[in-house]
Structures are given as structure tokens and as C-alpha cells.
Amino acid sequence: MAVLILTEIDPTDLWFAELIDQLQNRKPDLDLRVWPKYGKPEEIEIVLAWRPPPGVMQRFPNLKLIMSLGASVETILEDPDLPKHIPIARLVSESKTLQMVEYVTLAVLMFQRRFIEYQTLQRLGRWEYLSVADSSLFTVGVLGLGVLGLGVAKKLADMNFPVRGWSRKRKTVAGIECFHGREKLELFLSKCQVIICLLPLTPETKGILCHETFSALPSRACIINVGRGQHLVEADLLSALDSGQIAGACLDVFDTEPLPIDHPFWSDSRIIVTPHIAAPGLPKEVADRVLDTIDSSLEGRPLEYLIDCDRGY
Ligand code: NDP
Ligand code: OXD
Is a pLDDT exceeding 90 seen at residue 237? Predict the structure, then answer.
């Protein structure tokens, strides 16, 4: 029985190298292989995937489980040759949730306390006071109330921000004003000074951060996108920033990653760019989650966080 790490990202990348180290140290007898060196295809029973190259998974006749090394699975599902009967688990871990909560809280506070504008003033050498929005009146909207969205929403509510959340199915969460379904999207948006995209990428959510969504927000709202780059219509964001409908954006994910060097986002002072680092999770803890999942699969125990292929997340 062998486990294959299947990714097009260079496995010497810091996070992957540390994860591989952790897996090997914690379970020295694990037959761990790293793409493209997978040996005999019939020996591969578990694939750990992150942005896997398409067409590879079908080569393994004894494959029993695919586990995403991220919270999302869209790049696994878009493989046209994906063997349909294999269960797909995704990664949920405490450190990942904590990192996401930290990142988003920081971004919300930067907008509420107007740090982007202060950075511009600093470059101009101007000592100027800007009014501060009262946090109890600064409504935050979280698109996606899953593992990460709920973590973020609860933290911000604890910090006294009015918090709204939007999901596919109806939800009731203490301290959060919940909305669900496309028909309630506009109502949800109507009071949000900042929105945070924590949706999975599916045909329904692709392009959701677009002109219509921006127009439904109060004037000078801010956008935080930590979902996927394809959630955002980039040209619509630039026009909304130019018109003043949107005051600022904090973006961690992009249509093309790495963000091309000549992309206008790099030099736009209204946009904060980070290189998809919001919440990879700590390799040490991710290794524990991966090994638990492998053990459950091999021992025939029920698997946690299986995705529903029809729903797309
Ligand atoms: P979950 O699957 O736990 O939650 C997804 C949420 O989105 C659910 O609340 C779901 O609603 C909602 N949703 C899905 N489709 C729709 C829709 N059509 N309309 C309204 N709501 C919808 O995912 P996670 O919270 O674990 O992760 C969310 C995403 O965050 C990931 O898919 C990934 O893209 C991104 N991510 C980014 C990272 C980064 O570093 N930038 C790190 C980790 C994740 P319902 O509850 O009704 O099912
Ligand atoms: C994820 C991510 O999906 O890191 O986990 O983007």
C-alpha cells in the first residue's frame, strides 16, 4: 500500500517539504511517494492531492481514497478522467481555521481603522486624522458559513461587529444574522460595510464578486476575497474602485496564481495583495489530520469531511 502526493507545485516548496517531513517522521513505515515518481500504479491506494495534474488519478486501479491537501476540491473535480466512485475527503484542521480567522480579522480591522488610507497619507508625508467607524455599526458580511466562514463570523461577532452570514441552506447561529439562497443575496449585502468571500468555487459561486454584487452594497464598502480568484470579476472590481462604490479590497487568491508581474492589482494602492497565504494550516497538525484519515480509510472506519461531488464542495 502506497500513498502518493500528487501536486504540480514543487514539493520542495517550504510548506510541502515540511509536510512531507512531518508525515515521514510521524509514520516512518508509510510508503510515501511524491509525483511524478509513483512507481507501480497498482500500489497506489491513497492520493493526497493539491491542484493535481488532470488524467493521473485514473492510472491507479487500486485507488481507495483521494484526500485534498486543502479545504477545497475544485481542481480535483475538474479532472475529466476522475474515477467517479472514489471517495474524496478534504482538509479541515484547527490551525487552518485559526489562521483564516487571524487573516480575516486583520483585514477587517485594517478597513475599519482605515489603514490603507493612512498608508497613502504616509507616502505623501501628511499627518491627518480620519474619522473612525464605530465597530458596533460596521456590519461585516460573510459569504459562506462553513467551517471557515463560521469561525470568522463568530470571532468578529465576539469583537462586537454586527455580523451577517450567507449560505446555501438555511442556518441559525447565535449572534449572526443569517441569510440563505440567491433570492436573499441582495438583502444580505444591503447593509454590509465589508464582505468576506469564504465560498467554495462551484458553477453557482463563480464570478459572484461582480458588478451586481458591488452595486447591492452600501457605497464605499470593502471586499476581502479569501475564497478563490475565480469568484471575483477583476474588471468589475477595478471599475467599482474607480467609481468609489468600493473603497478597498484585500485579495489573497487570484484568477492566475502567481499573480502576473504586470497585473494592475500589484500597484493599486486601494488593493492589498497577499500570495494565497491566508490559511495553509500548520504542517505538523495537517500531518496529523492526513494520517488520521489514512488510518480511518485503511481500517474501514467512517471518513470525516467527505465532499459531495454533485454539489461541488
Ligand atoms: P465549507 O464547505 O465548510 O463551507 C462552504 C460554505 O459555502 C457553506 O456554508 C455553504 O453553504 C456555502 N455555499 C456553497 N455554495 C453556496 C451557494 N451557491 N450559495 C450560498 N452559499 C454557498 O468550506 P470551508 O469553510 O472549509 O472553506 C471555504 C473556502 O475557503 C474553500 O472552498 C476555499 O476556496 C477557501 N479557502 C481559502 C484558503 C486560503 O488560504 N485563501 C484556505 C482555505 C480555504 P451550506 O452551509 O448551506 O452548505
Ligand atoms: C485551501 C487553500 O483550499 O489553501 O485550503 O486555499
Answer: yes
Rounded Cα gap, residues 175 and 196, in angstroms: 17
Q: What would the pLDDT profile of 106-132 be if each residue is shown by its tens digit?
A: 999 999 999 999 999 999 999 999 999
Please tell me the distance between residue 276's alpha carbon and the centre of ligand 2 in angstroms: 8
Q: How far is the CA of 125 from the centre of ligand 2 (A)?
A: 38
Smallest CA separation from ligand 2 atom 2, residue: 70
Q: What is the pLDDT of residue 10?
A: 87
Distance 297 CA to ligand 1 centre (A): 24
Residue 46's pLDDT band (boundaries 50, 70, 90)?
A: very high
Please give the number of the atom of ligand 1 that sits closest to the Cα of 73: 32
DSSP secondary-structure letter at 163? E
Q: Does domain 2-93+281-299 have CATH number 3.40.50.1820?
A: no
Which ligand minimizes its atom distance to the CA of 204? 1
Residues with C-beta less than 6 Å from any ligand 1 atom:
71-72, 144-149, 166-169, 198-202, 204-205, 226-228, 252-253, 276, 278-279, 313
Residue 34, all three cell numbers:
511524491
CATH homologous superfamily of domain 94-273? Answer: NAD(P)-binding Rossmann-like Domain (3.40.50.720)
The ranges of the chain annotated as CATH 3.40.50.720 are 2-93+281-299, 94-273
Report the C-alpha gap between 5 and 20 in whole angstroms.
Answer: 9
Ligand nearest to the CA of residue 74, numbered in listed order: 1
Does the model's pTM come out above 0.90?
A: yes
In angstroms, the CA 7 to CA 16 distance is 10
How is residue 201 written as a grid cell? 468555487
